[in-house]
Every structure is written in structure tokens, then in C-alpha cells.
Design brief:
The chain is an all-alpha fold. Helices cover 35% and strands 0% of the residues.
């Protein structure tokens, strides 16, 4: 891990800003495993496109970062927007259940917490509005559930984790945050 914060500083930064950024947190082998598993999903997807006659080539020599885009140059609307159920793969276990990551979550939430099984991979394709994730508060997705449980979403303690498997920049869809907005409660509309 190239970014190490003392425990108290990490928790304070999370509570103040609503997020903490760690650069180089996952070991290279864990990232390689995850990319390998996702390469397998892209290969399965490519085979379906070939069988359907949608594409004429598999682009097997294309690098991980660009293969999905190359497969969909002529059929962008058929590109996957989200992978969720497909992610129950051995090579992703070390991300989802990373001991150092779970230790950090424990610092923030305490010893009792639950990993929701809705982990997601969202492919990002340039100039493809369907893969764009608009500004939002994650609490907006859980508000309905909390109202049913006679709770308030602002009382719901939750930590979300995001990690890119390619170099993340503004140009290719990196995560963006607005520091401190978690203290404003659930907003009707979130704008940068």
C-alpha cells in the first residue's frame, strides 16, 4: 500500500470528507487475478457476439483496457453495462474479501458489518452514454429499504469501495467525489 494513514487520521478523514483514497492499495497479483477473470467474461461475451453474427472478429490480441470497446465498435448498444451475478469467480475473492480492506472497514463501522452481495463491475466505454454513471448519492439507492424498516437513510452506516482495474483518469471515467456532501443528508438532486 503506497498510501498509509494512521488509524485515527484515516477514520477522521472518512468522517470529514465522506471518503478516503488509497493509491496502490491492492497487490499487483490481486489486480492481475481480477483482470484475468474479467478477461474471461469478455471472452464469453465475444463468443456470444460471434455466434450471433454480430461481429466478425474476436480481437483476442487486443489488450484488456481496449478489447471490449473494439468488440463493440459496430454494435455499441449491445455492450454490457453492468456485470453483477457473473462476478462469483475465484479470482475476484481476494478483492471482495481482502483482509486489509476489511480491517479498514472495521475501523470505520466496528466489528459487526455485512458485505452486501451486490458487487458490480461497470465497463466504461468512451462516448457511450449507457455506461456513464451520473452524479448520485449511494444513500439514494437505499432510502426505500430504510423507509420500509422505519429507519432514516442518514442513520444507515455504509462504506462503499471502488477500485479501477485500469488506470483511472477523468477522461476514462474515474470516480469523482464532492467532499462533505454525506453530511447534507439525502439531496433531491446532486450536481458537481
Amino acid at each position: 500500500m503506497t498510501t498509509q494513514l494512521p488509524t485515527a487520521e484515516l477514520v477522521e478523514q472518512f468522517h470529514e470528507n465522506g471518503y478516503v483514497i488509497f493509491k496502490g492499495f491492492l497487490e499487483p497479483q490481486i489486480v492481475r487475478q481480477a483482470r484475468s477473470e474479467l478477461s474471461g467474461l469478455v471472452e464469453q461475451h465475444a463468443q456470444k457476439l460471434i455466434e450471433a453474427g454480430t461481429i466478425s472478429g474476436l480481437f483476442q490480441n487486443e489488450p484488456f483496457e481496449t478489447r471490449l470497446l473494439r468488440l463493440h465498435e459496430t454494435c455499441l448498444d449491445e455492450a454490457p453495462r453492468i456485470w453483477r451475478a457473473e462476478l462469483h469467480l475465484a479470482g475476484l475473492f481476494d478483492i471482495f474479501f481482502n483482509p486489509r480492506l476489511l480491517d479498514i472497514v472495521e475501523l470505520i463501522l466496528g466489528r459487526e458489518f455485512r458485505l452486501y452481495p451486490n458487487y458490480t463491475v461497470r465497463p466504461k466505454l468512451p462516448d457511450h452514454p449507457q455506461t456513464l454513471v451520473l452524479w448520485h448519492q449511494d444513500g439514494g439507492y437505499t432510502e426505500h429499504w430504510h423507509k420500509q424498516a422505519d429507519g432514516d437513510v442518514t442513520d444507515f452506516r455504509m462504506v462503499n469501495v471502488w477500485t479501477p482495474l485500469v488506470e483511472a483518469r477523468v477522461e476514462n471515467g474515474c470516480m469523482q467525489f464532492i467532499a462533505g456532501t454525506h453530511k447534507l443528508g439525502l439531496l433531491a438532486r446532486v450536481l458537481p
